[in-house]
Each structure stands twice: as structure tokens, then as C-alpha cells.
């Protein structure tokens, strides 16, 4: 008898396949049968040192999924502050305390892709890489591109280094930026690597209820619409 977990995973994989051309991410069982062990792929995002590469993600589905997050790690070696350059372990709230049952394998993969676009060296998985990004950002970009060429099959191309500048000045985090939405609700997406203002804009576009500023669980359909908006797919 098929378990509820397997039915959920099978449905998610169908959705990933159907939306592959739009989202760019993909996942399938390692052996076409075992739904507990999947292989995901993420394209290197444009305007990053990873562009043009294909990154393989090892995905393990726990018995109590979706109430516990999937375990994901990079099989492809990558130079990134939030990914171990040795083991491929990923530092991302979505795969830990930030997980909720309304999230999916697809939203987790999209969060990892966003992490490639917006690395967070202040919460690193690999301290050496984070130190390079903060102190020598242009050198970081060059090394990240070389690793993408060597390990992910990225083409050699000119890097735009203008975006890699030292800047530790954080944006204002005052309540006005949240425009009446729950900070905890907004921060679930911020922890995926999105900017506060972009998340709030997506909430307004999708029509999310402010709920008097109180936190609550979003339905899966809303999660998908918000993520699509944040990734420029709407």
C-alpha cells in the first residue's frame, strides 16, 4: 500500500516536471522507484559566477515528510559561503527551522537557487569562502566561476565584477518595511534568500491577508504564487 508520504512526493515530482521549463529546477528518483532518495538539478542563475552550470542536489525524504524537511546537499562541488566546499552541506533555514508542511521539494530547490543569487556570508556553512566573499569579493567571484566551470560544466565567460563590492551597510529593518504583514511570515521568505521589500511586494501582488499583523500558515497554492512572483515568473 502506498504511503501518504509517497503519494505526496509523487504528486510533487509531477508538478516539478510540469513546471520545469518555467522554474528551471528538476527532481526525480535516483532509481525510478525509491521515492525516499531523489536527485535534483539546479541551473546556475544569470548574473552570477555559477551561470551556465548545472548543479546536482542529493535529496533524502524522511519518513515523516512533509512534517520534517527533506535533507538536501550539493553533489556538485561549489564555491559558496552557505555550502560546504568539502561535503556539500547547505546552510539554509528552509531546510531546518524555517521548514513548514506547506513547503515542497520544489520550493526548497528554488530557495537553494536563490541562495546562489544572494549568498549570505554572515551565516556561513564554509567560513573560508565567507571570509573571501567579505574581504576579497572579486576574488571570490573568480574562484566561484572556476569551480562552476570545472565541476558544473559552466562555460567560460566574462564576469561582471561591479556587483562584488564590500558593503556591510544593512538596509533598514524597521516595521514600516513590512507594511502591516507579520514579520515572522515575511521572514520565512527572507530566510530563503529573498529581500524584505521584494517579499512584501509579492504579498501585495498575490493578495495575501495581513491578518492584523499576526503570523499564520499560508496555503500551499499561495506559497507557490509568492515564490513564482519573487523569481519573476509572474
Q: Could you characterize the architecture of this molecule?
A:
This protein is of the alpha+beta class and 234 residues long. It folds into 2 domains: 2-150, Ubiquitin Conjugating Enzyme (Roll); 181-229. It is 37% helix and 9% strand. It has helices at residues 4-18, 20-23, 105-117, 127-135, 137-152, 183-190, 196-206, 220-230; strands at 26-29, 37-43, 54-60, 71-74. A 4-stranded antiparallel sheet has the order 1-2-3-4. A hairpin with a 7-residue loop joins strand 1 (26-29) and strand 2 (37-43). Helix 4 (127-135) crosses helix 5 (137-152) and helix 7 (196-206) packs across helix 8 (220-230).
Low-confidence residue ranges: 167-172
Structural class: alpha+beta
Residues in helix, %: 25-40%
What is the C-alpha radius of gyration, as a whole number of Å? 18 Å
Give the number of domains: 2
CATH topology of the largest domain: Ubiquitin Conjugating Enzyme
Largest sheet: 4 strands, antiparallel
Mean pLDDT: 89
CATH architecture of the largest domain: Roll
Quaternary organisation: single chain
N- and C-termini, Cα separation:
39 Å
> Which strand-content bin applies to the residues?
5-15%
Write the layout of secondary structure elements.
Blueprint: H1 4-18, H2 20-23, E1 26-29, E2 37-43, E3 54-60, E4 71-74, H3 105-117, H4 127-135, H5 137-152, H6 183-190, H7 196-206, H8 220-230
Antiparallel strand pairs: 1-2, 2-3, 3-4
Organism: Metarhizium anisopliae (strain ARSEF 549)
Protein name: Ubiquitin-conjugating enzyme E2 2
InterPro entries: Ub_conjugating_enzyme (IPR050113), UBA-like_sf (IPR009060), UBA_C_fun (IPR015368), UBC (IPR000608), UBQ-conjugating_AS (IPR023313), UBQ-conjugating_enzyme/RWD (IPR016135)
